[in-house]
Amino acid sequence: MEFNRLRYLRKKKLLRELLQETRLSVKDFVLPLFVIEGKNKKEEIFSMPGVFRFSIDNLMKEVGEAKKVGIVSVLIFGIPNRKDDMGSPAYNENGIVPNAVKKIRQEFPDVVIMTDVCLCSYTIHGHCGILKAAAGRRPMVGSKQKNIDHKLSAIKYQPEIDNDKTIEILAKIALSHAVAGADIVAPSAMMDGQVSAIRKVLDKNGFSDVLIMGYSAKYASSFYGPFREASDSAPQFGDRKSYQMDYHNLKEALREVEADIKEGADIVMVKPALAYLDVIKAVKESAMVDNIPIAAYNVSGEYSMIKAASEKGWLDEKNAVLEILTSIKRAGADIIITYWAKEAARWLKS
Ligand code: PBG
């Protein structure tokens, strides 16, 4: 008979394993962590079963557990007690993220610490940048803050973000994380010039060895919904479409990646991952990024939908997750940021 007997390649388990073209490893994973103020706190996020917000003391236990199963990289998100219209709590050197970073650095010196650099959890309006009207104004506090809160929620227009003022603030935030001991800062605000603004400030202050992971091709996605509950960062009016990318576009993603590389990014990211595997692959294959590591963010909504289906018994969580994470790697990701990092590490061992 004249046909290829490809099924012989799949004859038995060990043979299949020998012939695997993509191998997932615990070393691929980065675990995102949400940190809050206070003591002995561990709050489960309603829309992300199994994911928690930790106060710094409990965060240490979590990092310890992650390390035990082989996860050595974490990405820190801070949820502050106080917000203002300029997002100034984000660059307080004794703010929530710098304090968490210092503590991890102390207790786990070899862990790779990445930090998210953005304003959305720190601004009253929940946008990733400061608004044109607010630019240059002093932060509002106390009852004034409530007034503004109220006013903003009544306004239904799209935000006008002050790009260039925002990148100055992002650079300050990144510097405060670097001072605390971060290895990698990851700007996620999708402002133009954010990578170069951060690179400049880091270099000027003696932190040339701190890497930048650009959230380069970050799409305006409905899959961030659960994260916004987790980090209390939903925009109070309008949406993020004037700065995050339009999901109809791929070539524009390559331009964003190219721009970040030119500005000095050490790692570029595609986010979300699952509905954007073609983007990951295109970034991987595009000549200009030949040798730059690519991260993919398996985001909150991608986590929640599998969790919900598996809680209902509609699919097997372990098998579905390993299939998804492998597909992200097969598409070309070198680094996978995933809320399943710990479980996946255990599943890969068993
Ligand atoms: C902050 C930020 C977001 C995520 C990571 N950093 C939310 C957003 O842009 O609205 C999403 C992560 C996730 O959904 O898991 N800008």
Write up this protein.
- By secondary structure, the protein is an alpha/beta fold.
- The chain has helices at residues 13-18, 56-68, 96-107, 142-154, 163-180, 194-204, 225-231, 251-263, 277-285, 300-311, 317-331, 341-349; strands at residues 29-36, 42-44, 52-55, 73-79, 112-117, 184-187, 211-218, 267-271, 294-298, 335-338.
- It has an eight-stranded parallel β-barrel with strand order 1-4-5-6-7-8-9-10, surrounded by nine helices.
- The longest helix is centred in the middle third of the chain and has 18 residues, at 163-180.
- It is globular.
- The protein binds ligand PBG.
- Ligand PBG is lined by residues 116, 118, 120, 128, 188, 224, 227-228, 240, 299-300.
Question: What's the layout of helices and strands?
Answer:
Elements: H1 13-18, E1 29-36, E2 42-44, E3 52-55, H2 56-68, E4 73-79, H3 96-107, E5 112-117, H4 142-154, H5 163-180, E6 184-187, H6 194-204, E7 211-218, H7 225-231, H8 251-263, E8 267-271, H9 277-285, E9 294-298, H10 300-311, H11 317-331, E10 335-338, H12 341-349
Bound molecules: ligand PBG.
As a whole number of angstroms, the C-alpha radius of gyration is: 21 Å
Number of DSSP helical runs = 12
Instruction: Give the class from helix and strand content and strand pairing.
Output: alpha/beta
Binned, the helix content reads 25-40%
Number of strands: 10
Distance between the termini: 40 Å
